[in-house]
Prior knowledge:
It contains 23 helices and ten strands. It is of the alpha/beta class.
Amino acid sequence: MATQELVGRVASAVANPGLHQAVARSVDRHSYAALAALTPEVREIYKARARAARLRSVRHMAELAAQFIAQAESHGIIVHTADDAAEAVRIVAEIAKSHGVRRIVKSKSMATEEVELNAHLGAEGMSVLETDLGEYIVQLAGQKPSHIVAPCLHMTRDEIAALFSREAGRQIATDTPSLTAFARERLREEFRLADLGISGGNFLVASEGALVMVTNEGNGRMCTTLPKVHVALVGIEKLVRDFADLADAVRILPVASTGQLITSYVSIIRRPAQSGEEGPQEVHIVLMDSGRSEILGSRYEEVLACIRCGACLDICPVYRQTGGHAYGSVYSGPIGAVLTPLLRAEPSAQALPFLSSLCGACTDVCPVGIHLHEHLVALRARAVARGVAFPAESGAFRGLRRAWTPARRYRLTRRLMRGALRLGGGARQLRAWTAGRSLPRVAARPVADRLRAEGLIDEER
Ligand code: SF4
């Protein structure tokens, strides 16, 4: 049932050519810019350093968390720990209620999306306004972000202008200055009126007790400086050891994400405002576990090194056809298909690793070298073992196993297929497949025959 829902979401995304065009246009722009930003040699150096820095932090997460808490509290930041999503939401809601908060401005944060913070605070009677431009657009549209870096990349400029025009009650033009001018006009007053600012965090520096935000829009700074209280909700995997490790991670993040050598803002928050200074009088950081610790020590541990750059989404041939909403998870694309089943137990999450062609492009582009395609294969095996599989596919493989046992039947099929391919491919499906791509030429001698001749596989295969 859960897998049918996933198939239904994918089918409706694939049947939407407007969505496909909007997604493809954006992800191509990101991917080409990321590729052009550095030479391959420099990229490999950056990647090796970032991977080492992130893995070091992941492996010492518990010690770094203790160090971070001690350091942050020594500067006057109030640190809370949340074992799960419910506790994280409860902590944020209690902070807000204790200050009589009614209006909240929020900067982009996937952790807050993960726990559905806005809905919970809304149910407590508080209004939460997203202030990142992309998040503001998807909030107005009543949708969820479809990409971890570019939340509204699935929407066209015309759709956004229509949405803003409806909100404004007048015609807003489709050019970027007009669209951003409208958003700016709407948001500026809200920053001034808000009682609470909520943010996420890209990194937490343990040695300094510092929260680090890497952004391209000024809204992050407005949310964390104008309201009198600031709350940051951050997953514990965002811890890094010190500023040296932070530098290695921060340097590669914008390059992998959008091809920028540096982002517009790197904000480091170490304490609340002191008397006479402008800024929030209280800063709270909620360190959220919510399943992260269970990944530690497992074969999937390196997944926690992810810096949420979005490069694996941009390069993924499945994501570019479907966009992010088809995944039914706040984390989409290859990292979403790996991380979501590790964080959420329900069958619809366990089926996500099947949303991959296993081409390995995600692993190639990952700036911290996470072996995404290997984790996808392992998680598929786990899903099958747990009984979460696509019935038609499982039936097809059972049928093939029966049809090709003993192995000589498989060899006969292979010979027939080679003949058909040499003749140009007889099957209608194959012709349709090759209409948009070229098929490699059939080798003069099958690789299995060559391996057998070398004694590398046995006679029966
Ligand atoms: S898995 Fe790698 S490529 Fe994908 S978002 Fe994380 S860091 Fe970026």
